[in-house]
Amino acid sequence: MDIDRPSDPQVSVVSSDGTMFHTTLKSILLSGTIKDMIEHIGEGGVENMGAIPLQNVDSKTLEIVIKWIEHHKDNIQPTSEEIKDKTADFIDPWDENFLEMDLDKLYNLITAANYLNIPQLLWLSTRKIAMLIKNRTPQEIRSLFNIEDDWTPQEIEAVQKENQWCEEK
Amino acid sequence: MKRKLEEDLNICDLSDDILLEIFDFFNKETIENLIKVCKRWRNLILSSSKLSRKPTMFNNFAIYFRRNISMQQKVESLLEKSKKFPYRNFCFSQLYNEDSHSLFDDFSKFMTESTNGRAEKIMFNEVPIFMIIKGIQVNSDSLVYLEINIDFQKDILPTNREINLKNLKTLKIFEFFSILKIIQCENLTDFSLHALPRPSLALKVLKNFLQNCEKIKILRLVDNFPKLDNVKFQIENFDLEINRRNSENFIENFQIFLNSQRKSLRNLNIKNSIVDYRKILNVINEETQLEKLHLCCYCDQNNRNKIMTANLTVKEMKFDVFLLFQGRLHGKVDPSQLIKTFKEFPSVEHLNIKGFYEDFSKIIRKANFSNLKSLHINSFNKINLHYHEVSFKNLETFIIDCIHNEETARLWIKMISFFPNVKHLIVKRWTYKPKNKQKQLKGSIIQKLFKCGKNVEKISIEECYSLSFGFFDYLKERNSNLKLLKIGVSKDEEIEAVKQKFYGSKLELIVTNYQEKLTSKWSYDPEYLKKRRI
């Protein structure tokens, strides 16, 4: 084995607020965006390429993302097509636990997963939001997510009528 | 509510794409709710082609007519609605009316404008033929699924022009076979024809139609079987139901067809009340590629009261041919016939006995059940057996349809004592309600159940009508291998009651409202729509 070139070299990434994080190549390649960047650099450039700047991800979120990719670096990642076919019923307990976080962090995580193109993480985090929405009334959804109610009662009545399933007897 | 902190992110800060990803997890009911949350969400949902393609209200459109309602008015209001939403699935039902012919123009206009060439699924149910033709013509490019349920009529087809349904994948027809004369479906993969009136004519039409289809994989035929010796398709699934007396050539035609499909056929399902099942088996036995064979038939042609249906699974492994047997019995069964069948198929794995209320101790005593893995019976009146007389040593699953009185409950427990290794007990319906509280199933009898069923890991009571049988109290206290208890109740209060009973117990408990499950089932599946018909 080549001692000078470890099979999983260290890679550094820098968050939007300038914090540097160290992780491994194997982990970071879970991000489609970074994978594209690295492939662009070409063979042999990985060790010398320096820290990768990620302008759209802040340090708090990047820390979370790195925790996730490091845990999942050895797992085979499903493609976005495969994810679409998945049922939303079962997820890994580790992931379930991992996603226990404030909504605020979760939004940032979703945005980051989307930017970094990590389909599985995006699926998990959007699913988490979906689970929160499920089985709630519109009012409950509004107060949970701090959404302003911009409907007038007349408008909502009109919408309700309109949306009745078109089944005539 | 206003946001408290400026830097707090809001769900609405997520991009449209991500919100749509989230909404994509939901079914129709939830999406309907989401529309009411805020205007942005509504616009987003309505503008998304992905979401509107989901089986939501945006693409299902069903019309039922009653005779006393002004059709003119109805048609106008529906046209209005269909313009607003890009419906893709349509169900037209009972459009017959005394003066339906006088409304020809209105109907044609309606059919054209409401479907507007984008219908992917249409189900016609009791609709005049001219409307069906119109609907098919207008949507000939977009149709993927077509189902026509009308009785055979003498109506002459109003067109002789052939309609090419080039995207049609599924075609289901009930009786109205004449439509096959005018349509061409080169990409059809799933074809069903139920009930053939006037067989001699129908078989000719059917044969011509099938000869132009090359891609059929699933074929369902009922009542008659044409001589199909020159077809281009290679089917995988074949369902056949033979009920008519004049099926003399059946075996011959069946053999010819089966031979031509030998390479591709995997699943074969034959319901037959005419032909001796042994003859069918002889034909099938030549067929070694089959993975699944489901056979239901009379066991004896001369003895029609003694109906017997058999259902077996054939699996080919590399060197051996396994004959697995899944017996299913309907009606009154002559035990001696049953025993005979069991002897013919010694490696029974799944047995399903229906409509059999008599004592079937005799059968059990004589047949060998040592390979049986699951047993499903609907109910019983008596069991005169002793433990040493039966061998169910590999039985893992025991299913009973109904426990309706104390006697069946006791017999159920007695049956369980025959199964030393049973792991999963399923009761489809528990309707037994003790009149007298003292008579409740508890104490010794339940104790006995768990003495004999000590390997039981799962108990499922799918529909439980009576919660007062003391069963739960006992289950809670006892210490055994039981890991999972699944109960379906009819009221939400009962869910809570059951949960409270098991509060703090290690048992995994799944309590659901089975009625809710039934009513909230939503599907664009025409099968479901059919059930909703008046």
TrEMBL record, chain A:
Pathway: Protein modification; protein ubiquitination. It comes from the Eukaryota. InterPro entries: SKP1, SKP1-like, SKP1-like_dim_sf, SKP1/BTB/POZ_sf, Skp1_comp_dimer, Skp1_comp_POZ. Keywords: Ubl conjugation pathway. Residues 11-74 form the SKP1 component POZ domain. Residues 120-166 form the SKP1 component dimerisation domain. PANTHER family: SKP1. This is Skp1-related protein.
From TrEMBL, chain B:
Residues 8-54 form the F-box domain. SMART domains: FBOX (SM00256). SUPFAM superfamilies: F-box domain (SSF81383), RNI-like (SSF52047). It holds the Pfam family F-box. This is F-box domain-containing protein.
